[in-house]
UniProtKB/TrEMBL annotation:
CDD domains: CheB_Rec, REC_CheB-like
UniProt organism field: Liquorilactobacillus oeni DSM 19972
Domain notes per entry: Contains a C-terminal catalytic domain, and an N-terminal region which modulates catalytic activity.
Lineage: Bacteria, Bacillati, Bacillota, Bacilli, Lactobacillales
Domain of life the protein comes from: Bacteria
NCBIfam families: PRK00742.1
Protein name (Swiss-Prot/TrEMBL): Protein-glutamate methylesterase/protein-glutamine glutaminase
Residue span, Response regulatory domain: 2-117
Pfam families: CheB_methylest, Response_reg
Enzyme Commission number(s) of this protein: 3.1.1.61, 3.5.1.44
Length: 335
């Protein structure tokens, strides 16, 4: 897979060059030192993936992303520092598929960071290059009638990882002006970015979107789990805790889904969206076991089909729907 790296930091270019050189599946095809160079290179060569720094001279990452999306469908992953939080949220809304927080020093570039970096690159490129074969359960429901689910629902839970922020912004933007029940969201995201992401989602809808707080009383709002915490629900309140990571992540979708299944039973809707790994699959299974309604995003509209696929393979999914259809379903359920 040929990769274009755009970053004005010589340190970061060296780090990425060394990592890619050690991976047989990656090839550093070109390097740009600013957004203008990246846009020019993308117009002249074909790449499998573009890594784009947020803060660069001449043309910054956000302006470059807009121009890149106009001329190519190549997936773009943003490279960000702590000061880029609001810009990253805007980049995800504009079509960046993911973002990776840059290390602050060479000491921070350890085995764990490197493995995560490579996994996320592979997940995005593999999804882009995957064939069009559909799983047996998957259905193309784009043009089918939108039936009303049979249950009277009391809550919605949503889980997402890679590619999730952009998808969630689209779904939240389709909510009715007033929602009648709570929506709980777990998005795999570092703690530094969840406040900005909650605020960005809140801009997309008239419904209230907040970063969840421990012991907060549950109301008809959209609650985003803060980074580095697990979120569950109990006795009409939100519970946050820092028990060990599950599936290598905190927050974990499974903890939310299982607790909500126990509280809401057959009045719960669970949605698993794009993301790598298997988080949420067993939680979806518990929701379905208790009579809840379960939806997985389809492969065509997922950035990475790992989490939806895992839920499908667990026989935990009632329907596999496009992003457009999920938005229509949610609008009817919560309105």
């Amino acid at each position: 897979m040929d990769i274009l790296v755009a970053d004005d930091s010589a340190f970061m270019r060296r780090v990425i060059t060394n990592i890619l050189a050690a991976q047989k599946d990656f090839r550093l095809a070109a390097v740009a030192r600013n957004g203008k160079e990246a846009v020019s290179l993308a117009s002249e060569q074909e790449f499998s993936l573009i890594l784009l720094d947020v803060s660069m001279p001449v043309m910054d990452g956000l302006e470059a992303l807009i121009k890149l999306k106009e001329q190519t469908s190549v997936p773009v992953i943003m490279l960000s520092g702590d000061d880029d939080r609001k810009t990253i949220m805007e980049a995800l809304a504009l079509g960046a598929v993911d973002f990776i927080k840059k290390p602050t020093s060479l000491m921070k570039v350890g085995k764990k960071w490197t493995e995560n970096f490579c996994l996320r690159l592979k997940a995005v490129v593999s999804a882009e290059e995957s064939n069009e074969e559909q799983l047996p359960l998957q259905q193309d429901l784009h043009n089918l009638e939108d039936p009303q689910p049979h249950n009277k629902f009391s809550a919605v839970v949503i889980g997402a990882s890679t590619g999730g922020p952009g998808v969630l912004l689209k779904l939240i933007g389709q909510l009715p002006e007033r929602i009648q029940l709570p929506i709980f969201i777990v998005q795999h995201m570092p703690k530094e970015f969840t406040p900005s992401f909650a605020a960005r989602m809140n801009q997309e809808t008239n419904a209230d979107v907040v970063e969840a707080a421990d012991e907060e009383r549950i109301l008809p709002k959209v609650y985003l789990c803060p980074g580095n915490y697990h979120m569950t629900v109990s006795n009409g309140k939100i519970k946050l805790d820092q028990r060990p990571k599950l599936h290598g992540t905190r927050p974990a979708v499974d903890y939310l889904f299982r607790s909500a299944a126990a509280v809401y039973g057959n009045q719960l809707t669970a949605v698993i969206l794009t993301g790598m790994g298997k988080d949420g699959a067993l939680g979806m299974k518990e929701v379905k076991k208790r009579g809840g309604y379960t939806i997985a995003q389809d492969e065509k509209t997922s950035v990475v089909f790992g989490m939806p696929r895992s839920a499908i393979e667990e026989d935990a999914v009632d329907e596999v729907l496009s992003l457009e259809m999920i938005g229509r379903r949610l609008r009817r359920i919560v309105g």
